[in-house]
Amino acid sequence: MRAPIGNFDEAVPAPDCLDLLTAPVAAAVRAWSGDVPAEQLLFVDTDPEVADTAAFVEHYGADLMDHSANCVVVAGKRGGESTLAACVVLSRTRVDVNGVVRKQLGARKASFAPMDTAVGESGMEYGGITPIGLPAAWPLLVDSEVVDTEWVLIGSGTRRGKLIVPGKALAGLPGVVVVEGLGTA
Fold this sequence. Notes:
The structure is a single chain. The strands form 3 sheets. This protein has a 5-stranded mixed β-sheet. Strands 1-2-9-8 form a 4-stranded antiparallel β-sheet. The protein has a two-stranded antiparallel ribbon with strand order 5-11. The longest helix has 9 residues, at 97-105. It has 185 residues and is an alpha+beta fold. It has helices spanning 23-30, 53-60, 97-105, 115-122, 144-147, 167-170; strands at residues 12-13, 42-44, 69-78, 81-90, 94-95, 109-112, 140-143, 151-155, 162-166, 176-179, 183-184. The N and C termini lie far apart (34 Å). The protein is 22% helix and 28% strand.
């Protein structure tokens, strides 16, 4: 099957290649019950050497700059308590951690979670963290621009491979809050 965006050799429905996904992502795909059928979640094999956005777009297609989204793990702190959350924004923007995220989490302070925390708590590889398969207790903040994008390229849980999903599919994930202005230029 041909991918709806980018220049990839092949796109495979994620339910047909669960062995290429990390355990939490595979479990989420297996249990998928959103409005978008699981077969519309597509896996594309990619070279981990060009996983960073600029190199990735140059290698796999300029159209991906408008379709790529990043998922970052943040820690909100209030009164000695720390809450982990994930934020998904288009790659051409950055997460407004100290404004929008801090307010959404009701935190006094918010910052990017340390890499070992993000990897250990998500069960995914750094650089491949995806909103699909994150711990159910985490708040999941998704920028409204991501949801409004027809096809979005996101991580697959590993640095090798990506998922291409309809943006609206992300609005149906557990714990999701669609937030306007989460990503800033």
